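Shipment paperwork, digital attachment
Item: protein structure file
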Amino acid sequence: MLNIFLLIRLLTGLTQPVDSNGDDPTDAFNFRKGEHLEFKLSYGWFTVGKASLDIDGNYHEYQDENCLKVDVKGETAGLLGVFTHVDDRWGAYIRRDNLLPLHAYRDIEEGKYMRVEHTHFDHAEGKVKVMRYDPRKDERKPPKVYDIQGEVYDLMSSYLYLRNLDFSQYKKGDTITVNTFYEDELYNFKMVMDGVKDFESKVGDLRAYKLYFLIPPSDIFPNEQGVIAYISADSNQLPLRIEAEMFFGKAYCDLTSYRNVKYGPDYQQ
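Attachment content:
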C-alpha cells in the first residue's frame, strides 16, 4: 500500500526567478495556491484507498523565505480498510522562486507501525539532515546527515517541478530526469516520453502525455517500464492516472476530482 501512495508523489519545470519589479514568481507556474486534487487508489475492480493533494492557499515563512506548502494525505478505503488501517501525511515547505525544498515531513501510521520524519535541506552547504523517530517512544536517535550536489528535490517539490515542465518540448523516446532525495538516498528518477494519447480519465476524455517511469526491477516492480503516468496535455498538466504493474497485479491511482486549478472550472464527481 505504501508504494501506491508513493506513486502519487512521483507525479507531477522550469523554475522562474523573482522579477525585479517584485511580481509573484508563482504567477508563471501551471498551478496556483489553493489547488486541491483528489485520487482513488484501486487494484482491479477494488477500491483500496483514497488520497488528496493540496497546495496551501497562503505562503508560509520558513527560514526567512516565503514558501509554498504542499500536503498529501492518503488512507485506506473500501474492502482493504476492513483488514488494515493506513493514515499517511506528507508535506514540504518549498521555495516559491526556484521550487527547491527547504523542509519535508512525514507522519506515517500503517497498522501498528508509526513514524515521524523531518528532512531539512541546506542547498548552500550541500547537506540534507534527516530526523526520524517513533512518536510513541521517548528515545530518539541523532539525525543523519547526507551530502548532495546541484538541484535536489524531495517528492513534493519534484511534483511541483514536473507540473511546471513543458512536456510539449519532448518527443517520443526522450528521457526526463529529476534528482530526488527520498528515504536516505538520492535517486535520479527518469521518465521516458511516449507521446500524446487520447485518454479516458475519471475527469473526462482528454489528450494526455504518456510517460514511463524507469524503475529498477525489484520484488515489488518486476519490470523496468512497469509504471506509466498520464498527464493532461493542457495548461494545467494534471496527473490523470498512474498505472503500476506490481508483483501482485496492476494498481491504479486515478484523479477523480479537482478544484481551484489555474485554468478552467472545478471538476467534482
